[in-house]
Amino acid sequence: MPLPLEGIRVLDLTNVMAGPYCSMVLGDLGAEVIKLESLEGDSTRNFEPKVNDESYCFAVLNRNKKSISVDMKAPAGKEIVLKLAAGCDIVMENFRPGVVKKLGIDYEALKQVNPGIIYASMSGFGQTGPYGRKGGFDIIAQGMSGIMMMTGHPGGRPAKVGIAMNDIACGVTTLYGILGAFIGKLRHGQGQYIETSLLEAGMAWSIWEFGAYFGNGELPTATGTRHRRSAPYQAFRTKDGYVTVGASGDKLWRAFVTQVVEQPHWLEDPRFERNPLRVKNADALEALIEEVTTTQPTAHWVEKLDAAGVPGGPVYTYDQTLADPHVQHRRMVYDIEHPVIGPMKTLGLPVKSTGELTQIRKPAPLHGQHTAEVLRDLGYTQAQVGALVADGVVRAAEVPA
């Protein structure tokens, strides 16, 4: 059974994180992804750590892709892009707004050679509006989307989410936009242009905060690990670390109090009678709970939470996450062979399925590894490819023996 996007061709002009994440998932779904890089290469190829001079971070993010390296500013380079686009179903780019038009490879230009193309643009703030020409990175979008002001601990400085949240949000948002447009094309026969931004994609994930603001004028502020609507629903200190507890519902609260911390008299405390009251008195509740939880290690409390049917778990460092037997069982750490790095680990597939849906088929490409192959598929002769390399229009790399 073929993968769902097998036979679909994607021309990926993106760089760094948001776009490459999106195209990686398209590749996992079976698409043929042709990553078109500048002669300098995707800037994440320079990211440390490196193994045998290849970036490990780049290799994790760019599996299931081919790489060609082209100077798009050169007329012969632009011609290659147009020829590629003519045979592709999807084109993606994340240049600063206006750049692709200047290069002559914007949607209107590519639609001339491929009327049914699906063309996706990603940017910091979108293609229109007062900030439409403004460049943007994940950290800028986290600040301007309000996310930094609601992350961290009360009274502290604004805090960045520990991962590139807006970048990944933009990649995921673009992904469902592309898949939706592709389904639309299958049904109605027309391609289209779609675009999103780091700012909007991050804002789209602030559902509860949006509702609270327009429902009651609430401004979301930093709450540490607490939830704004539920208690106890946070991480609590233990003898050797932290344990998370989600026991805000009345049934779970009763189980937590009677079976986990074994403090049944808390059920009679009017401050904790209902969830809204527990949220209001979260400081007092936290102090009481931590008087108990700090007497035993995290593993003790996880065992008791599980036995009582109350959701909870340890707060891991990342190495502990990767070594967890459940994570290992779910194959979220996957072994793959890279042509230069050698045996390496890559992130596993987060969606499991009964049929063929996603698959890690090949490692990330070397810079320009598939230039000659792709150009030959476009009709270029070996001599013409050699001339393009000699003229500095393209870069071609070979996999070492």
TrEMBL record:
Task: Report the InterPro entries cross-referenced here.
Answer: CoA-transferase_III_domain, CoA-Trfase_fam_III, CoA-Trfase_III_dom3_sf, CoA-Trfase_III_dom_1_sf
Instruction: Please indicate if the UniProt record lists Nucleus as a keyword.
Output: no
Q: Name one GO molecular function term.
A: CoA-transferase activity
Q: Name one Pfam family in it.
A: CoA_transf_3
Per UniProt, which keywords does this protein have? Answer: Transferase
Q: Does the keyword Cytoplasm apply?
A: no
Q: What is this protein called?
A: CoA transferase
Species of origin:
Ramlibacter monticola
Q: What is the lineage of its organism?
A: Bacteria, Pseudomonadati, Pseudomonadota, Betaproteobacteria, Burkholderiales
